[in-house]
Design brief:
The protein is α/β, with parallel strands linked by helices. It is built from seven helices and eight strands. It starts with a helix and ends in a 7-residue tail after the last strand. 38% of the residues are buried. The structure holds zinc ion (ZN).
Length: 213
Amino acid sequence: MDSFSKKLYLLKRFGNSLFTYDCVSCGRPVQGKCLCEKCSEKVFYSGNYYNGFACACYYKGAAKKAMLRYKFAPDYKFCFDTLLRWLLLAYEKLGEKNFDAVVPVPSFEAKKTRLSELSEKFALMAELPFRPEFLRKIRKTEKQRELSASERRLNIAGAFKADASVSGKKILLIDDIFTTGSTAAECANALYDKGAEKVFVVTIFKTIYEKEV
Ligand SMILES: [Zn+2]
């Protein structure tokens, strides 16, 4: 990653910090962020990580509102830096470095998604190579969020294909939300099929289950 692009991005981020927005959770004015101080305090940072996986926070409350705005609203850009900070936080928790490639979970329909945009900037900040071409989605699938755990596994089975050049590489897979882990597992399988040495997973959010509350 070239440090010039990183500096340029940091400069742009500084510029953004001067603008005033409305907090996505309570509507109060806030500078350069999508959550005000009060709502930021209500984010549930997750200490929940295990071998090869880390996430920043639980998918609920103010954090969930920021994600929904980022995912679906046309004015999503002002949530970008907050989500990027969380992604970097999850990466720190992972405690692993020296990845050969940052690969976002791909979409079937579009090459450039909001997740790939976020992953690209994450790679820039973490000074890692961004290689979205290493993994493709080869068929359309149903929306995972409407399905049960077993339906999710079936829905996503065989939906991804990795490039042969992942062989021997240490890959950092990026997704926005970890729910049952079926998408991440399927992507990791596709990467291992083509000889990836190790696949680690970082997501911004983890869905909260009753038993964990
Ligand atoms: Zn607020």
